[in-house]
Structures are given as C-alpha cells and as structure tokens.
Amino acid sequence: MNKAKAYSAASSTSPLSLDTIPRRDNTERDVQIEILYCGICHSDLHTVRNEWSSIMPTTYPCVPGHEIVGRVTKVGSAVTNFKPGELVGVGCMVDSDQSCPHCQADLEQFCPNSTFTYNSPDKHLGGITYGGYSENIVVDEKFVLRVPENLDLAGVAPLLCAGITTYSPIRRWGDIKGKKVGVVGLGGLGHMGVKFARAFGAHVVVFTTSPNKKEDAVRLGAHEVIISTNPEDMQKHAGSFDFILDTISAEHDINAYINMLGLEGNITLVGAPEKPLAVSAFALIFGRKSVSGSLIGGIKETQEMLDFCGEHNITADVEVIPIQKVNEAYERLVKSDVKYRFSIDMDSLKFE
Ligand code: NAP
Ligand code: ZN
User: Fold this and answer.
1) How is the chain split into domains, by residue range?
2) Topology annotation, domain 2-161+317-351
3) Three-state SS for 71?
4) Number of C-alpha atoms within 13 angstroms, CB side, residue 96?
5) Ligand 2 centroid to 235 CA: how many Å?
6) Whole-structure pTM over 0.85, yes or no?
7) What is the pLDDT of residues 251-306, one digit of tens each?
8) 337 contacts: CB under 8 Å, gap ≥ 6
9) CA distance 320 to 256
10) Distance 184 CA to ligand 1 centre (A)
11) In sequence order, what DSSP letters do the residues of 13-53 get, joined into one string?
12) Is 213 helix (H, G, I), strand (E, B) or coil?
C-alpha cells in the first residue's frame, strides 16, 4: 500500500484540508496515474456537504474529484492499452462487474456493482474510494480513458464528467441538427451542453438566472439567451422547444421549462438537486411531453466524446486554481459564480 497527499473533508461542515490517504499497490490490471488536473464538479460539493444523504450518504473523510487528467507512471503486467508517460483521464467510475447486461451494453454507469471514483465501497482496500483531489490514483485499465494530445489539459479534465454528462443525453435524443434545444443553467455542465448542442448543429438557447452570463453564452455557442427570471422573455418561447437539458443544481420550477416544450418535447434532467421537484401532470399531458434523466455515460461513449473533442478542439472553459483555493471555489460554486469550471492544478499539492 502507498500513501498519497490529498485534500479531504472530515465532516459535512468541515472545509477541505490536507490529508494523507492510502492508495493500493498496482495489481496486474491497474494503471497508476500522477494527477495533473482535477475539475471541481457540483457533485463534489453535494457529496462533501452530504446534500444527497437520503440517496448516497457520505462517508468521511471524503476526498472528492472525478474529473481527472494525468500521466501514467506505472502499469501492471496484464495492462495492454497504456504505457508509462501517456496522458490519460479518469471520470466518475473506477470499476464495475463487467458481466451484467448493463456492462455488456457499455452502460457501466448502471451496473448494480459499479464503483464510483469517490464515496463508493473500495473492493481492494476496504473503506471507501478516494477521488482526484490527490497526487495520484490507481485504476483498473478498463476505466482509464485516452486523452487527445492536442487539447489544453486543464480544460480536458472537466470533460470526464461535465463533458460526458451533457454529450450523452444530446446524442441519445437523436439528430438535433436544426432542432430548437434549450440548455438550462450556465455552469460547468451547462456550458459544455451549449458547446455540444452547437457542434451537433442545433439552434441553441440558454436559460440563465445570471444576466451577466449573457455575452459568454453567445461566445460559447448560444444563438439566443433567455433570462429565466423574466416572465415576458419566457412567455415568448413557450411551446417552441424540441429538447431541453436541465443542469440546475438547486430547487427550481421545472414546470416553467416543461411549458417551453413543443408537442412531444423532452426535458432531460442531469442536474441533481437535493430535494424532489414537483412536476405538474397537466404540463406534461397537454402536448404528450416527457421528463427523463441521464447519468454520466459509459466508458465507450466517454472515449467517443473525448475523441470528438480532440477532433473539434472542444474543451471546458476553466479557471485554473491551486488546491489551496478549493474552499473559496466551493463558496463561489454555490453562488453560481464560476466561469465555467474550476480546474485544480495538482502541482500545487507538491508545496504542502
Ligand atoms: P454548477 O457549475 O454549479 O452549475 C449549475 C448552474 O445552475 C449554475 O451556474 C446556475 O446557472 C444554475 N443554478 C444554480 N442554482 C440555481 C437556482 N437556485 N435556480 C436556478 N438556477 C440555478 O454545477 P454543475 O457542476 O454544472 O452541476 C450541475 C448539477 O448536475 C449538480 O446538481 C450536479 O450534482 C449534477 N451532475 C449530474 C451528473 C449526472 O450524471 N446526471 C453529473 C455531474 C453533475 P445560471 O447562473 O446560468 O442560472
Ligand atoms: Zn461530476
């Protein structure tokens, strides 16, 4: 067993601070990775603060981080796809049973025995898994992704969660070329949703509560921006959308967005607020509309997304911070003050 420096939270009300965590010795199937950048996902904050306690209670100490980019330092004897020195990524999952129907359909995220990158039972060391706010990580090669060499690494890290979480439902919807697509909430997920929807040829409309993000929304690829707190602006677009991706992290009125959908339109929730949302049956019935959800994406699709980003030069817009600023970053995340993802430069951990 090895020891690694990491930032952990000791309880739901503690700040993140320097800690030492165990990492397993490489098994023959493992890839050991020196972490270069790790994105800060709002799920990290939900987990650290135990906001999902009724569904996924947090075990402490908690080391979050599932948007990991790094360099391979060592591979096990049975590893065939990776070599030391290569650039790789790790997202929200580090293991699954590889035998259930979901794994066989490349949908490991729905495997009943999947292991998430943090706050999940650790099959190797016992206890729970520790994520990417750390100097290194050891991962089964099946869950290691290839990172295109031509992209900025700090901006690649968020693709491992925010990227795949928005890419997957957009692809699943079908051919969105020429369709009117809404992206609700311009944060980490939302800004990636805008980039992908635009890249696939949709007419992209951003719904935001932050008027100061209007110009950025257009720069990121939106054709139109609606300030969702302005009822007149909302009314103008009622009944006109084919598909809406809802990335909001907090309680909100989903019916306002269902009312934006046209006949048989769909709103897919990727945002995961702490409390249930009230859905009006009438809003759905009149127009045969649907509400659905989507969870990250499988490993094969994540690789496809990374390759797509490499070909089209797509990365997240990031604010690079040292790990010492992580608690400040969390406070800003709560206030929707992020442009548009924090990416931790893990070099900063060396100075601790
Ligand atoms: P984020 O960067 O904080 O962005 C969330 C955005 O939602 C904010 O920037 C803000 O956008 C909007 N928002 C926040 N509070 C709001 C409120 N009270 N009312 C209306 N709008 C509000 O968060 P993120 O990292 O993108 O994550 C978003 C959500 O997705 C989180 O709940 C996270 O846990 C979840 N998530 C789900 C998956 C999945 O697989 N389904 C994967 C990753 C994350 P504006 O300023 O534009 O209004
Ligand atoms: Zn995430």
Assistant:
1) 2-161+317-351, 162-293
2) Quinone Oxidoreductase; Chain A, domain 1 (3.90.180)
3) strand
4) 23
5) 32
6) yes
7) 999 999 999 999 999 999 999 999 999 999 999 999 999 999 999 999 999 999 99
8) none
9) 35
10) 9
11) TSPEEEEEEEEPPP-TTEEEEEEEEEEE-HHHHHHHTTTTT
12) helix
CA 228 to ligand 1: nearest atom? 48
pLDDT tens readout for residues 185-240: 999 999 999 999 999 999 999 999 999 999 999 999 999 999 999 999 999 999 99
Output the CA 191–ligand 1 centroid distance in Å.
10
CATH 3.40.50.720 fits 162-293, yes or no: yes
**Three-state SS for 111?**
coil
* Three-state secondary structure string covering 270-334: CCCCCCCCCCCHHHHHCCCCEEEECCCCCHHHHHHHHHHHHHHCCCCCEEEEEHHHHHHHHHHHH
Q: Is 296 exposed, middle or buried (0-12, 13-18, 19+ CB in 10 A)?
A: buried
